[in-house]
Amino acid sequence: MADTLRASSEGKLKIQAAIQAKGYPKQSPHWLNEVQKYLPSRQLSNGKTESETISTATWIRFYEGKQGIKRYIFIACCKALGLNWEDVAEPEQIGSKIQQRGVSSSSNNSWVGRKELIDELGTKLRGDCRVLILTGITGIGKSHLAARLTIGLDETCWTKAKPKTDTNTDSDILTTESQETSTTVSLEFDSKTITDFASVAADLLLRWNESITSDDRRDPLLLLNRLLRKLQEKCYILILNSVENLLQGDAEKGWSEFQDKWWESFFNRLLEDSCQSKIIITSQDLPRYFDEICFNNPELCHYRSLNGFTKEEQLEFFDILGLDVDDESGNKSALENIGELFEGHPLGLRVIAGEIIDDPIFNGDAAKYWQKYGEKMLKIKAEYNIEDIKLNTELPQLHSYSRSRRLRNMLEYKLDETFKRLPQDAYFLLCHAAVYNLPVSREFWLTHLEYLGKTEEEQNVALNILYDRFLVEEEINEDETLLKQHPLIRSVALACLKRTITKQEQT
Q1: Mean pLDDT over residues 77-97, rounded?
Q2: pTM above 0.70, yes or no
């Protein structure tokens, strides 16, 4: 189902009639209190519960019906007015089947496009391909695509038919695929993660109910053999995200070899012997090790570099996020300009959309946003293009990295500018929550504002602004909702925090 809902033309009339019948002006704070009664409550660490809140900007978007709002908030708004939400929402949104991105984190993103790519890569994984490598700039959607590709794979495993022998029965010959329940495990590597092969192998074996002794941990060959045996005997789907953190190098000069050579031994053996399992790797660049491997074993090892959304996918993405993309709205041309400027980069588009929707200055008017910032944004891109040409002239060996570096620099600059326009409490919360390199509870985030003496309502308002602008993500862990930031969002927020602290020290 769709992440966001908005009122149909008939639904807007019903909303207006219900508001008038209740006797309160549509701008009255009364409605915020009424809607809050129908919003979910959260369990706090002290045992108490608190309800979510709705911002004035979100309430306005609801009754105006120009942009979508989160599904559960839309339903709560309808309940506050005594309306059936299905009679108010756009009919095509009620039963739409938009596949969520990701398997372990609850993201505000909904799946968009890339159908042909999903079909192609899915076919490879259901066939002989054992290792699939997805590369691209941060925020381009590698991890989401990897998770999306597991849908279907995590229901069945595919193995080659048994070769015909004298002992095969007719049923053996007719069975071309054996099916077996599989287990999906996703690992995320970052600069603080222990990334040596032995530690990762031991962790995987423990997840799969294997006993590991302290002596085992000091024996990489033993762990390699046990892990390979596990992957060979049963179908597991293993996602290794951010593998660039396992490699030697950096974002400026690119990544090369594995820091721990046992990884190469592992993949060499994985591709040499028979194996039921599938491994999907995401990395900001293709590790040099896989150049030759994928070239020599194209059926077993496949590499694909991801680009941004196409023009059509960009408009679909904006529409799902809640922006009006119709020709009549005047938004379409502006959104096409923004999409082209950011080369269809999903994270960049999502953050810009959040500002257009949530900032009362624009209130969903992309044309007004482009009129205010478009010229400056184009100027910035032109400057990066000139720098790109200069780098390619002076340092041709960096050519393969210059485009992604240029786009990342432009994204970071735009994110920084967008953050600065946040309300003060929301900006403070965004920057200080960036100190967490792992998902943490909502209470951890809000303590930063609590220390400033902010009320509970002020804390929730600030957090809701970050939600509305797609600057915070959720992850479900054992029925507990944890909060986190996308790595690119976090890196820019940390830089903002560092500047703020430096400025305070100088005064």
Answers
A1: 74
A2: no
